[in-house]
Amino acid sequence: MNIKPIKTKSDYQAALKEIEQLLDSKPKTPQSDRLEVLTILVEAYEEKHYKIPLPNPVEAILYHMESHGLTRKDLVPYIGSRARVSEILNRKRPLSVDMIRKLNQGLGIPEEILIQPYECKKAA
Prior knowledge:
Helix content is about 60%, strand content about 0%. With about 120 residues, it is mostly helical.
């Protein structure tokens, strides 16, 4: 099978090109096995060199609301009062550990996103 680690950008480009050629491989063939191994190697290289940063916690909550058709009122059980929801979404107050736990368990927003620090506006 002669596969080697992807160490350079040219190795990466060559692996992508070969993956493209192998995409139509029939399952349970040497070609599909090679495709699987190359894909794993490319994913590892991309994770190391092209890591995508996690979104801001408030942006993640807003995205979740939009994609699931939720309103601010729907967040009350997870964050607290409507005023508290407004403070969180307007970045006037940080998320508490309890809010993070409830948002994760109730809405499925990953805790690794919610625990990130983010800038809050100072009260006037």
